[in-house]
Amino acid sequence: MRTLLLALFSDSIWNWLHRLGGPGLILLGVADNSIVPLPGSMDVFVILLSAREPAWWPYYGFMGTVGAVLGGYITYRLAEKGGEETLEKKIGKQRAQKVYRRFEKHGFATVSIGAILPPPVPIVPFLMAAGVLRYPTKKFLFALSVGRGIRFFAVAYLGHIYGEAIIGWLSQYYKPLLYALIGLGIAGGITAFVYFKWYRPRKQQEERERGEKVEQFPLPGHHPDKQNKTSKPA
Length: 234
What we know:
Blueprint: H1 2-8, H2 11-20, H3 22-35, H4 41-52, H5 57-82, H6 84-91, H7 93-116, H8 124-132, H9 137-171, H10 174-209
Helix pairs in contact: 1-10, 2-3, 3-4, 3-5, 4-5, 4-9, 5-8, 5-9, 6-7, 6-8, 7-8, 7-9
């Protein structure tokens, strides 16, 4: 167990979380759901803490839920102030429109089910859509609490029952996992560098030269103005 923690998270991070316990989950939940999304981090740490202290699994499930709801509320409020452009810049206009349509029909279910689903399904677009569309705050918090509560209490219970077995299995493959994480980090850094230093400036310059609307964050292979143009009859 200790070897896996050293490999994946570093000793300092684990010691920090271990010392803080439940309050640490609140801080991590706020960051994961608002400031710095860390997909899967909450699930992992809830499992680890519940595995170490099995009798406390309801406490860790509760604290994980509190952190996630607080972080989600921050995102909701920021999106409420930022408007539609905030969400569209993050996930693209087409995807944002799909989220809006889903919200208009099933707002409560959209938030609660989105809060239950594990990675790689992102929760942030749903949180932002609720803010942009000014979904009632009380309903939003209730739906988010229900979804996150189901998820983190279930995860904590799994950690309580199977935590040591899961950690024992993962510890056999910690090196490939570590290398994969390093590779993903390097690939993400290269992709971000290419996008912001080369692709984005070039794409925006081309749009200016054509007299088109300049997209703040143009998507590769996406040309919004083409959808508004009709082909001339032969």
